[in-house]
Design a protein that fits this description.
Elements (H helix, E strand, L loop, with lengths): L1 E4 L7 E4 L33 H7 L8 E4 L6 E4 L6
Antiparallel strand pairs: 1-2, 3-4
Organism: Paxillus involutus ATCC 200175
Protein name: Peptidase A1 domain-containing protein
Pfam families: Asp (PF00026)
Length: about 80
């Protein structure tokens, strides 16, 4: 498991896993989804999505995000729909 923190949203911490061992099934530890990008009302933990926290703090240029899922460099862009 990796732990991610955000320079612009310092109170947000995410755990990232690519494989779960026994005992860590979704039934025991509900997942928050992809980068916790859903709505707080449907969050497994009732947490605010990272994206909305960044918007509320004025940390994004625009209140938008986009994904580029084309290999070999898939990425997430927060605050813009344009990729550098």
């Amino acid at each position: 498991m990796s732990i991610l923190t955000f320079e612009r949203a310092p109170d947000q911490t995410l755990g990232v896993t690519s494989q779960q061992s026994s005992g860590f099934e979704v039934a025991n530890f509900p997942m928050g989804g992809l980068m916790v990008m859903a709505f707080q009302s449907i969050s497994a933990h009732g947490t605010s999505p990272v994206f909305w926290i960044l918007v509320a703090q004025g940390q994004t240029d625009q209140p938008v995000f986009s994904f580029n899922l084309v290999a070999p460099w898939p990425r997430l862009c927060i605050g813009s729909s344009e990729f550098p």
